[in-house]
Amino acid sequence: MSEESGRKKHRIMTKKRRRHTPEQIIRKLAEGHKELAAGKELDEVCRHLEIAESTWHRWLAQYGGMKANDAKRLKELEGENARLKKLVANQALDIDMLREVAKGEF
Question: Each residue of 34-47: b (16+ CB within 10 Å) or e?
Answer without folding.
Answer: ebeeeeeeeeebbe
